[in-house]
Write a structure and sequence with these properties.
four-stranded mixed sheet; 9 strands; 240 residues; 22% strand; alpha/beta
Length: 240
Amino acid sequence: MKLAFISDIHGNAIALEAVLQDMAKHEIDRIYVLGDLCYRGPDPKRSLSLVRSLNTQVIKGNADEWVVRGVNQGEVPEQVIDMMKREREWTVAQLDEQDIAYLVSLPTEMKLEIEGISIHAFHATPDSLFEIVLPGVGDEVLKSKLMSASDADIFIYAHIHRPFIRYMEGKILLNTGSVGLPFDGMSKAAYAIVEIENGQIRTSIERVPFRIEDVVKQYEEVHYPNAEMMTKIVRNGLVK
């Protein structure tokens, strides 16, 4: 059974289409989505439509929560909150009531049992949509923050836009990276594959090129708030 886990699409439908095409080449059996579907990208409506067309399990990310109820004080640095509120207003204006209702309805975690292997997946941590747990922290922090809420064989999260795979005490911890806005310096979409066969587990991070300049053009054509910064991220794969 080949499973694909994707997350942090952030309204980049072009990158999502490239990832879905790559999955077809890998003959993926099931796709799971770990949140942050449409906020901060130039094509939120189509991104959300593509996700919904997969007819699969989808969980909520912090950006989906922001679309639903707004960006609150203290959740982002003070110097960017006004801009992020404008970006959120623009995103909501591209969606309809059914889209918002769909985001409201999303659960915050998924627990899977695949051929005797248990998987616990969530966006940021089991307890928070917002907490940032980077790969460079110590093993004890990773275990306490990400792996203590259940007794799964594989733990999968997203949120930080930096993919990685770690093996700790017989468990696997995996971050999917970001489809639409990678932050690790590689300007390619990221997603994870978990293959389970007769008790054997294979994991990989896939990096997929997409039409970056077409995405940049979209940001400009739709007059996206904060387009200059967002296009730099898309081009460079970095926040700064």
